[in-house]
Amino acid sequence: LAKAAGKNTFRFFEPHMNVDAVQRQQLQNALRAALGSGQLALHYQPKFDLRSGQLTGSEALVRWHHPTLGHVPPARFIAIAEDFGLIGALGRWVREAACAQMVAWQRQGRAAAHTAVNVSAQELHQNSFEADLLRTLQETGVAPERLQLEITEGVLLRDTDAALAKLSRIRDMGVRLAIDDFGTGYSSLSYLRRLPVDTIKIDQSFIRELGRDNDIDGAGAVIVRAVIGMGQSMGRRIVAEGVEAQAELDFLRRQDCDEAQGYWFSAALPAAEFASRYG
Ligand code: C2E
Ligand code: MG
Ligand code: MG
Ligand code: MG
Asked: Is the pTM of this model over 0.95?
Protein backbone atom coordinates (compact mmCIF):
# COMPACT_ATOMS: atom_id res chain seq x y z
CA LEU A 1 0.00 0.00 0.00
CA ALA A 2 2.71 2.43 0.92
CA LYS A 3 4.29 2.06 -2.49
CA ALA A 4 1.04 2.38 -4.43
CA ALA A 5 0.09 5.51 -2.52
CA GLY A 6 3.09 7.36 -3.93
CA LYS A 7 5.72 9.65 -2.49
CA ASN A 8 3.91 12.36 -0.65
CA THR A 9 1.48 10.34 1.39
CA PHE A 10 1.71 8.73 4.80
CA ARG A 11 2.26 5.02 5.17
CA PHE A 12 -0.67 3.73 7.16
CA PHE A 13 0.50 0.28 8.14
CA GLU A 14 3.78 0.70 9.94
CA PRO A 15 3.52 -2.17 12.43
CA HIS A 16 5.44 -0.34 15.20
CA MET A 17 3.05 2.60 14.98
CA ASN A 18 0.10 0.34 15.56
CA VAL A 19 1.66 -1.27 18.59
CA ASP A 20 2.54 2.12 20.00
CA ALA A 21 -0.94 3.48 19.36
CA VAL A 22 -2.52 0.49 21.08
CA GLN A 23 -0.16 0.78 24.04
CA ARG A 24 -0.88 4.48 24.38
CA GLN A 25 -4.60 3.80 24.31
CA GLN A 26 -4.22 1.13 26.99
CA LEU A 27 -2.07 3.39 29.14
CA GLN A 28 -4.60 6.15 28.78
CA ASN A 29 -7.41 3.94 30.07
CA ALA A 30 -5.23 2.63 32.86
CA LEU A 31 -4.21 6.16 33.88
CA ARG A 32 -7.81 7.32 33.90
CA ALA A 33 -8.58 4.49 36.32
CA ALA A 34 -5.43 5.12 38.37
CA LEU A 35 -6.41 8.73 39.07
CA GLY A 36 -9.15 7.59 41.41
CA SER A 37 -7.71 4.39 42.79
CA GLY A 38 -4.68 4.99 44.98
CA GLN A 39 -2.16 3.76 42.40
CA LEU A 40 -0.50 7.16 42.29
CA ALA A 41 1.85 8.40 44.98
CA LEU A 42 4.23 11.27 45.51
CA HIS A 43 7.84 10.65 46.40
CA TYR A 44 9.92 13.46 47.89
CA GLN A 45 13.49 14.34 47.02
CA PRO A 46 15.33 16.58 49.49
CA LYS A 47 17.17 19.78 48.51
CA PHE A 48 20.01 21.24 50.53
CA ASP A 49 21.56 24.65 51.09
CA LEU A 50 25.20 24.36 49.99
CA ARG A 51 26.51 26.89 52.52
CA SER A 52 24.78 25.67 55.68
CA GLY A 53 24.14 22.07 54.66
CA GLN A 54 20.53 22.49 55.86
CA LEU A 55 17.51 20.94 54.22
CA THR A 56 15.65 23.66 52.31
CA GLY A 57 12.66 21.66 51.11
CA SER A 58 11.72 18.90 48.74
CA GLU A 59 10.56 18.21 45.22
CA ALA A 60 7.48 16.02 44.93
CA LEU A 61 7.73 13.55 42.04
CA VAL A 62 4.73 11.52 40.97
CA ARG A 63 4.96 7.72 40.93
CA TRP A 64 2.54 5.29 39.32
CA HIS A 65 2.52 1.66 40.29
CA HIS A 66 0.10 -0.27 38.09
CA PRO A 67 -1.05 -3.70 39.36
CA THR A 68 0.11 -5.55 36.23
CA LEU A 69 2.28 -3.07 34.31
CA GLY A 70 4.35 -2.31 37.41
CA HIS A 71 6.17 0.99 37.70
CA VAL A 72 5.43 3.34 34.79
CA PRO A 73 7.99 6.18 34.48
CA PRO A 74 6.53 9.71 34.85
CA ALA A 75 8.07 10.89 31.59
CA ARG A 76 5.94 8.25 29.83
CA PHE A 77 2.59 8.77 31.52
CA ILE A 78 2.79 12.56 31.72
CA ALA A 79 3.14 12.66 27.94
CA ILE A 80 0.09 10.38 27.70
CA ALA A 81 -1.85 12.55 30.15
CA GLU A 82 -1.05 15.61 28.03
CA ASP A 83 -2.07 13.96 24.77
CA PHE A 84 -5.34 12.55 26.09
CA GLY A 85 -6.61 15.51 28.11
CA LEU A 86 -5.82 14.05 31.52
CA ILE A 87 -3.06 16.46 32.54
CA GLY A 88 -5.44 18.84 34.32
CA ALA A 89 -6.78 16.08 36.55
CA LEU A 90 -3.32 14.61 37.15
CA GLY A 91 -1.83 18.00 38.03
CA ARG A 92 -4.66 18.78 40.43
CA TRP A 93 -4.14 15.41 42.11
CA VAL A 94 -0.40 16.14 42.48
CA ARG A 95 -0.91 19.59 43.99
CA GLU A 96 -3.67 18.41 46.33
CA ALA A 97 -1.57 15.48 47.51
CA ALA A 98 1.51 17.67 48.04
CA CYS A 99 -0.48 20.27 50.00
CA ALA A 100 -2.26 17.61 52.09
CA GLN A 101 1.14 16.10 52.92
CA MET A 102 2.52 19.47 54.00
CA VAL A 103 -0.47 19.89 56.32
CA ALA A 104 0.00 16.38 57.74
CA TRP A 105 3.69 17.03 58.41
CA GLN A 106 2.90 20.35 60.02
CA ARG A 107 0.38 18.64 62.35
CA GLN A 108 3.11 16.21 63.38
CA GLY A 109 5.30 19.18 64.23
CA ARG A 110 7.75 18.58 61.42
CA ALA A 111 9.74 21.23 59.59
CA ALA A 112 7.64 23.73 57.67
CA ALA A 113 9.90 23.58 54.64
CA HIS A 114 8.48 24.16 51.19
CA THR A 115 7.50 21.53 48.66
CA ALA A 116 7.97 21.94 44.93
CA VAL A 117 5.69 20.32 42.37
CA ASN A 118 6.20 20.09 38.62
CA VAL A 119 3.70 21.74 36.30
CA SER A 120 3.73 20.88 32.63
CA ALA A 121 3.40 23.64 30.05
CA GLN A 122 0.11 22.33 28.78
CA GLU A 123 -1.35 22.34 32.24
CA LEU A 124 -0.28 25.88 32.97
CA HIS A 125 -1.89 27.09 29.76
CA GLN A 126 -5.30 25.77 30.77
CA ASN A 127 -7.81 28.48 31.67
CA SER A 128 -8.78 26.79 34.92
CA PHE A 129 -5.21 26.58 36.24
CA GLU A 130 -5.17 29.64 38.51
CA ALA A 131 -8.62 29.01 39.99
CA ASP A 132 -7.72 25.35 40.65
CA LEU A 133 -4.47 26.33 42.32
CA LEU A 134 -6.16 28.90 44.53
CA ARG A 135 -8.88 26.43 45.51
CA THR A 136 -6.31 23.78 46.49
CA LEU A 137 -4.45 26.29 48.67
CA GLN A 138 -7.66 27.47 50.32
CA GLU A 139 -9.11 24.01 50.88
CA THR A 140 -5.91 22.63 52.40
CA GLY A 141 -4.96 25.84 54.21
CA VAL A 142 -1.35 25.70 53.02
CA ALA A 143 0.41 29.08 52.98
CA PRO A 144 1.14 29.89 49.32
CA GLU A 145 4.81 30.58 50.15
CA ARG A 146 5.27 26.93 51.05
CA LEU A 147 4.37 25.75 47.57
CA GLN A 148 6.75 26.10 44.69
CA LEU A 149 5.83 25.38 41.09
CA GLU A 150 8.54 24.09 38.77
CA ILE A 151 7.95 25.05 35.16
CA THR A 152 10.13 24.56 32.11
CA GLU A 153 11.17 27.10 29.52
CA GLY A 154 8.72 25.45 27.12
CA VAL A 155 5.93 27.30 28.91
CA LEU A 156 7.00 30.45 27.10
CA LEU A 157 7.01 29.01 23.60
CA ARG A 158 3.27 29.59 23.31
CA ASP A 159 1.52 32.91 24.05
CA THR A 160 4.61 34.36 25.67
CA ASP A 161 3.01 37.54 26.97
CA ALA A 162 -0.09 35.79 28.28
CA ALA A 163 2.08 33.12 29.90
CA LEU A 164 4.29 35.74 31.57
CA ALA A 165 1.22 37.60 32.85
CA LYS A 166 -0.21 34.40 34.26
CA LEU A 167 3.07 33.55 36.00
CA SER A 168 3.18 37.05 37.50
CA ARG A 169 -0.34 36.65 38.90
CA ILE A 170 0.60 33.30 40.42
CA ARG A 171 3.72 34.90 41.89
CA ASP A 172 1.51 37.67 43.31
CA MET A 173 -0.60 35.02 45.06
CA GLY A 174 2.58 34.27 47.03
CA VAL A 175 3.32 30.95 45.34
CA ARG A 176 6.99 30.54 44.50
CA LEU A 177 8.18 29.72 41.01
CA ALA A 178 11.21 27.87 39.73
CA ILE A 179 12.41 27.33 36.21
CA ASP A 180 13.23 23.64 35.80
CA ASP A 181 15.79 21.98 33.51
CA PHE A 182 17.30 25.38 32.80
CA GLY A 183 19.59 25.49 29.79
CA THR A 184 17.82 22.81 27.76
CA GLY A 185 15.23 25.10 26.20
CA TYR A 186 15.45 28.03 23.87
CA SER A 187 15.36 30.99 26.18
CA SER A 188 18.48 33.08 26.59
CA LEU A 189 19.93 34.12 29.90
CA SER A 190 18.82 37.69 29.30
CA TYR A 191 15.26 36.44 28.83
CA LEU A 192 15.40 35.35 32.44
CA ARG A 193 14.97 38.93 33.56
CA ARG A 194 11.39 38.88 32.36
CA LEU A 195 10.56 35.65 34.14
CA PRO A 196 8.99 36.15 37.57
CA VAL A 197 10.82 33.16 39.08
CA ASP A 198 12.72 33.07 42.38
CA THR A 199 14.72 29.99 41.52
CA ILE A 200 16.65 28.57 38.59
CA LYS A 201 17.30 24.83 38.48
CA ILE A 202 20.31 23.95 36.32
CA ASP A 203 19.54 20.87 34.25
CA GLN A 204 21.27 17.69 35.30
CA SER A 205 22.83 17.20 31.86
CA PHE A 206 25.22 20.11 32.61
CA ILE A 207 26.07 18.71 36.02
CA ARG A 208 26.84 15.39 34.31
CA GLU A 209 29.19 17.20 31.90
CA LEU A 210 31.23 18.57 34.79
CA GLY A 211 33.07 15.29 34.52
CA ARG A 212 34.90 13.33 37.11
CA ASP A 213 38.01 15.48 37.08
CA ASN A 214 36.15 18.77 37.31
CA ASP A 215 37.51 20.14 34.07
CA ILE A 216 37.12 23.88 34.62
CA ASP A 217 37.07 24.65 30.90
CA GLY A 218 34.68 21.84 29.96
CA ALA A 219 31.31 22.60 28.37
CA GLY A 220 29.37 21.74 31.52
CA ALA A 221 31.57 23.87 33.77
CA VAL A 222 31.32 26.91 31.50
CA ILE A 223 27.53 26.77 31.43
CA VAL A 224 27.14 26.05 35.12
CA ARG A 225 29.40 29.00 36.01
CA ALA A 226 27.54 31.31 33.62
CA VAL A 227 24.09 30.37 34.94
CA ILE A 228 25.19 30.79 38.56
CA GLY A 229 26.84 34.15 37.89
CA MET A 230 24.11 35.63 35.74
CA GLY A 231 21.25 34.13 37.74
CA GLN A 232 22.57 35.35 41.08
CA SER A 233 23.21 38.83 39.69
CA MET A 234 19.49 38.90 38.88
CA GLY A 235 18.69 37.89 42.45
CA ARG A 236 17.63 34.33 41.70
CA ARG A 237 18.47 31.29 43.79
CA ILE A 238 20.37 28.63 41.87
CA VAL A 239 19.70 24.94 42.42
CA ALA A 240 21.85 22.27 40.79
CA GLU A 241 19.86 19.17 39.80
CA GLY A 242 21.09 15.61 39.52
CA VAL A 243 24.19 15.88 41.72
CA GLU A 244 25.63 12.38 41.94
CA ALA A 245 29.30 12.81 42.83
CA GLN A 246 31.43 14.48 45.48
CA ALA A 247 33.49 16.20 42.75
CA GLU A 248 30.35 17.79 41.33
CA LEU A 249 29.37 19.02 44.76
CA ASP A 250 32.85 20.45 45.38
CA PHE A 251 32.74 22.32 42.08
CA LEU A 252 29.27 23.73 42.82
CA ARG A 253 30.39 24.89 46.27
CA ARG A 254 33.43 26.64 44.79
CA GLN A 255 31.15 28.40 42.30
CA ASP A 256 28.94 29.52 45.21
CA CYS A 257 25.85 27.67 43.95
CA ASP A 258 22.98 28.07 46.44
CA GLU A 259 21.36 24.65 46.60
CA ALA A 260 21.71 21.12 45.31
CA GLN A 261 19.60 18.04 44.82
CA GLY A 262 20.48 14.59 43.53
CA TYR A 263 21.33 10.98 44.23
CA TRP A 264 24.51 12.01 46.07
CA PHE A 265 22.15 13.19 48.83
CA SER A 266 19.12 11.00 48.23
CA ALA A 267 16.72 9.78 45.56
CA ALA A 268 13.05 10.69 45.95
CA LEU A 269 11.55 8.80 48.91
CA PRO A 270 8.05 7.77 49.98
CA ALA A 271 6.58 10.35 52.36
CA ALA A 272 7.03 8.28 55.53
CA GLU A 273 10.67 7.56 54.75
CA PHE A 274 11.33 11.19 53.86
CA ALA A 275 9.84 12.28 57.18
CA SER A 276 11.79 9.80 59.25
CA ARG A 277 15.06 10.85 57.62
CA TYR A 278 14.56 14.58 57.24
CA GLY A 279 11.61 15.49 59.51
P1 C2E B 1 12.41 16.86 36.81
O2 C2E B 1 11.32 17.70 37.38
O3 C2E B 1 13.57 17.57 36.23
O4 C2E B 1 12.83 15.90 37.99
C5 C2E B 1 14.11 15.40 38.17
C6 C2E B 1 14.21 13.95 37.72
O7 C2E B 1 15.55 13.51 37.88
C8 C2E B 1 13.36 12.97 38.52
O9 C2E B 1 13.02 11.88 37.66
C10 C2E B 1 14.34 12.51 39.59
O11 C2E B 1 13.99 11.28 40.17
C12 C2E B 1 15.61 12.41 38.79
N13 C2E B 1 16.81 12.59 39.60
C14 C2E B 1 16.97 13.21 40.77
N15 C2E B 1 18.25 13.19 41.17
C16 C2E B 1 18.94 12.56 40.20
C17 C2E B 1 20.33 12.22 40.03
O18 C2E B 1 21.19 12.51 40.86
N19 C2E B 1 20.67 11.56 38.88
C20 C2E B 1 19.74 11.23 37.93
N21 C2E B 1 20.15 10.59 36.84
N22 C2E B 1 18.42 11.53 38.06
C23 C2E B 1 18.05 12.18 39.19
P24 C2E B 1 11.53 11.34 37.55
O25 C2E B 1 10.89 11.29 38.89
O26 C2E B 1 11.58 10.12 36.72
O27 C2E B 1 10.78 12.48 36.75
C28 C2E B 1 11.13 12.79 35.42
C29 C2E B 1 10.42 14.04 34.96
O30 C2E B 1 8.99 13.80 34.93
C31 C2E B 1 10.59 15.23 35.90
O32 C2E B 1 11.82 15.88 35.66
C33 C2E B 1 9.40 16.06 35.53
O34 C2E B 1 9.64 16.79 34.35
C35 C2E B 1 8.34 15.00 35.24
N36 C2E B 1 7.50 14.83 36.45
C37 C2E B 1 7.69 14.09 37.56
N38 C2E B 1 6.67 14.23 38.43
C39 C2E B 1 5.80 15.10 37.85
C40 C2E B 1 4.53 15.67 38.23
O41 C2E B 1 4.00 15.44 39.34
N42 C2E B 1 3.92 16.52 37.34
C43 C2E B 1 4.50 16.82 36.13
N44 C2E B 1 3.83 17.68 35.31
N45 C2E B 1 5.69 16.33 35.76
C46 C2E B 1 6.34 15.49 36.60
MG1 MG C 1 11.35 19.30 38.57
MG1 MG D 1 14.65 19.08 36.20
MG1 MG E 1 13.47 16.93 33.71
From this structure: no
